């Protein structure tokens, strides 16, 4: 499996890029957000990749970070979400936005992606709401950008840690995971700590996912 590609950009489009790796050109499908972030033709770039294998088709999909690749893996595990729909969601919201939308149960944000209807958006939120906090907590470890180079190498994807059953998970553990998830979303440590402290007093904050959702509501701008 090709886990990472690094080389020289030969061609750029809004949905794919052609990368020359030692004389071999690889077409890598990307989101518009990723396409806009890439350097111009003739310069080096690197992308983490996911290889889609079908009976009559081989396609590479590219991501600037392992965090985005991990979200792609989770999104495509939902029935009805193919690779292109996943790229549409990630291209519209970004990995942090996807995590925030799923944690808050905001199907409307997922639906804002082109080609994603309300029923499918709701399915994404329902199926991934318990998995999202683990990926969000690992965000800092998976957010390092790829470094340009001239090799094709295999890049292992960090696997999310299995969450303990809610009844057995010490509260200090999921408080720490919630703090990590919020800071990975861009909130300051002080704001994240204050929100988690307030959310911890809520009787419904019985696991990491619920604690994050309550804290995010506390952090949301007030009308």
Commentary on this structure:
This protein is α+β, with helices and mostly antiparallel strands. The protein folds into 3 domains: 4-64, OB fold (Dihydrolipoamide Acetyltransferase, E2P) (Beta Barrel); 66-140, DNA polymerase, domain 1, CATH 1.10.150; 166-219, no CATH class. The protein has 10 helices and 6 strands. The chain has a 5-stranded mixed β-barrel with strand order 1-2-3-5-4. Strand 1 and strand 2 (16-21) form a beta hairpin. Helix 2 crosses helix 3 and helix 8 packs antiparallel against helix 9 (189-200). The longest helix has 22 residues, at 83-104.
Which tags fit this structure?
single chain; 223 residues; alpha+beta; OB fold (Dihydrolipoamide Acetyltransferase, E2P); DNA polymerase, domain 1; 3 domains; five-stranded mixed β-barrel; 10 helices; 6 strands; 18% strand; elongated
In short:
46% of the residues lie in helices and 18% in strands.
> What is the CATH class designation of the largest domain?
Mainly Alpha
Q: Structural class, from secondary structure content?
A: alpha+beta
Helix fraction by DSSP (H/I, runs of at least 4): 40-55%
Order of helices and strands: EEEHEEHHHHHHEHHH
| CATH level-four homologous superfamily name of the largest domain | 5' to 3' exonuclease, C-terminal subdomain
The total strand number stands at 6
Overall tally of structural domains: 3
Rg for CA atoms: 18 Å
Unreliably modeled segments? 150-172
Overall pLDDT metric? 81
Report the total helices.
Answer: 10
The third-level CATH topology of the largest domain is DNA polymerase, domain 1
Strand arrangement across the biggest beta sheet: 1-2-3-5-4
Q: What's the end-to-end separation, in Å? A: 48 Å
Query: How does the overall form come out from the CA principal axes?
Result: elongated
- Proper CATH architecture of the largest domain: Orthogonal Bundle
Give the DSSP E fraction (strand runs of 2 or more residues): 15-25%
Biggest sheet descriptor: 5 strands, mixed, barrel
